[in-house]
TrEMBL record:
This is Aldehyde dehydrogenase. Keywords: NAD, Oxidoreductase. The keyword Transcription regulation does not apply. PROSITE patterns: ALDEHYDE_DEHYDR_GLU.
Length: 507
């Protein structure tokens, strides 16, 4: 008997992309009402990887109507039943983990070594919020003299979820899972540069038994589909991950319909290394948090502030490690940095090489493209930098690190806070008092002491200043996707003042 070999995950991906990716609306796979499609490309060589339906206001309206129609039944479904469905989603994600990793690496250029965990983290997100579905409506008991006040929460309604092109599968689950657990219905608009795994996630949720209309997917561009979603009157809230300028536009576009917005935006995050730190561990963490995921992550530590007494030694070791980072095919398990997502992002990152030179910084390592094919950039290290330079103020979003020396704790805190952003910060010191004092002074929504970014799902995730509005994680997610209402019960002793009563006085 002849055995026919199964296609490789790469071949299987290309087979499925022979037909355009379609929207998923009301439980059906449909083309754009305009019939239009757009191309998306493989970052490794910029060849067309596939086409996707190009959604517009008509597609968004159809999806919003489907989410609106499905909302009453999904809201009424018990938390226990929602939990079971979300657990089924998590199981199916894990069953397709390898295919998801290959698709994500091919579509985004992220190294497969990191994308192997994308499905695992997404499954964890679904299980974590599934376990909280039964208690999502819980509130507080607030008794006072003569009254019992208590609060309850209810889902806000259909919500729009707009996700980015960096690690899109995991980040989509980070938004969609709590929305579903809370009892909301969803219209998802993924980034046009990386639409593949959004389609896979929609397939999985449909297979898991999520009812028709509860989750809808519309591909398209921000200027058309995204804008229509933020303005649609049936969409009660928008959860967005992306750059700060786009977040500002979304807030303006949602103003006329008084939308609630959650904006997870950019960062120019400092890692501060004091001379009493464990320098070997600090070096590992600083490198990991900027050069992993191609430097295309909002929490990357793109500014390295090093106390002057250890600066030269630290930078010498840093430069040797950066020069040794392996750049290559994202599907090669040995690759540590792959190609950037898109030629436009590639050109943006490369533009900072000239900006660094113009401002007087030194390109210690990198500062150049690799090869003539694809969006490959050599991991880059800027030294002799000042905090007022563009390379220290603007979010580059690539494998580029800027090093700035400091002298005192006060200098370090001033430099760390002197940027428009305030998402994350990383602090390396073995002085307990300094660690607490410095952390309290940082204008950052999240701070890790003697660690890289290690997420604990119940904790709040979000930033200050231009890094966003609102918090994800644990119960903080439900604060966004649910309305809190108060019920006041008179226990019998209270009477309202009497107005308009007849007078007892004689004329």
């Amino acid at each position: 008997m002849t055995t026919i070999p199964s296609p490789s995950p790469v071949d299987a991906l290309h087979d499925r992309l022979r037909e355009p990716l379609r929207h998923f609306i009301g439980g059906e796979w449909v083309s754009a009402q305009s019939g239009d499609t757009f191309d998306f490309h493989a970052p490794s060589d910029n060849r067309v990887l596939g086409q996707a339906a190009s959604g517009d206001a008509r597609d968004i309206d159809r999806a919003a109507q489907a989410a609106h129609a499905a909302f009453p039944a999904w809201k009424a479904l018990s938390g226990k039943k929602r939990r079971a469905l979300l657990y089924r989603v998590a199981d199916l994600i894990e069953a397709r983990a390898h295919d998801i990793a290959v698709a994500e690496s091919t579509d985004t250029g992220q190294p497969i070594r990191f994308m192997k965990s994308a499905a695992v983290r997404a499954a964890e997100n679904f299980r974590f919020f599934a376990d909280r579905a039964e208690g999502a409506q819980d509130g507080l008991s607030l008794p006072t003299d003569g009254f019992l006040n208590y609060t309850v929460r209810q889902p806000i309604g259909p919500v729009g979820v707009i996700t980015p092109w960096n690690t899109p599968f995991m980040l989509s689950s980070w938004k969609i899972a709590p929305a579903l657990a809370a009892g909301c219905t969803v219209v998802h608009k993924p980034a046009e540069w990386s639409p593949v795994t959004a389609t896979i996630l929609a397939e999985i949720m449909h297979e898991a038994g999520i009812p028709a209309g509860v989750v809808n997917l519309v591909h398209g561009f921000g200027e058309s589909a995204g804008k229509a979603l933020t303005e649609h009157p049936l969409i009660r809230a928008i959860a967005f991950i992306g750059e700060s300028r786009t977040g500002s536009l979304i807030q303006k576009q949602g103003a006329d319909t008084l939308k609630r917005v959650h904006l997870e935006l950019g960062g120019k995050n400092p890692v501060v290394v004091f001379d009493d730190a464990d320098l070997d561990r600090a070096l590992d963490a600083a490198i990991f948090m900027i050069y992993s995921l191609n430097g295309q992550r909002c929490t990357s530590s793109s500014r390295l502030l090093v106390q002057r007494g250890v600066h030269d030694q630290f930078v010498e070791q840093l430069a040797a490690r950066v020069a040794n980072i392996r750049v290559g095919d994202p599907l090669d398990p040995a690759t540590e940095v792959g190609p950037l997502i898109h030629p436009r992002q590639f050109e943006k990152v490369c533009s900072y090489f000239d900006a660094a030179r113009a401002d007087g910084a030194t390109i210690r390592v990198g500062g150049e493209r690799i090869g003539d094919t694809g969006n490959y950039v050599r991991p880059t290290l800027f030294t002799d930098a000042r905090n007022d330079m563009r390379i220290a103020q603007e979010e580059i979003f690539g494998p580029v690190l800027t090093v700035i020396p400091f002298d005192t704790d006060g200098d370090a805190l001033r430099l760390a806070n002197d940027v428009p952003y305030g998402l994350a910060a990383y602090l390396w010191t073995n002085d307990l008092t300094r660690a607490h004092t410095f952390a309290h002074g940082l204008d950052s929504g999240m701070i890790w002491v003697n660690s890289e970014n290690v997420r604990h799902l119940p904790t709040p995730f979000g930033g200050m200043k231009a890094s966003g509005i609102g918090r994800d994680g644990g119960d903080y997610s439900f604060d966004f996707y649910m309305e809190t209402k108060n019920v006041a019960i008179n226990l019998g002793g209270h009477r309202a003042q009497q107005l308009g009563m007849p007078s007892n006085k004689e004329n």
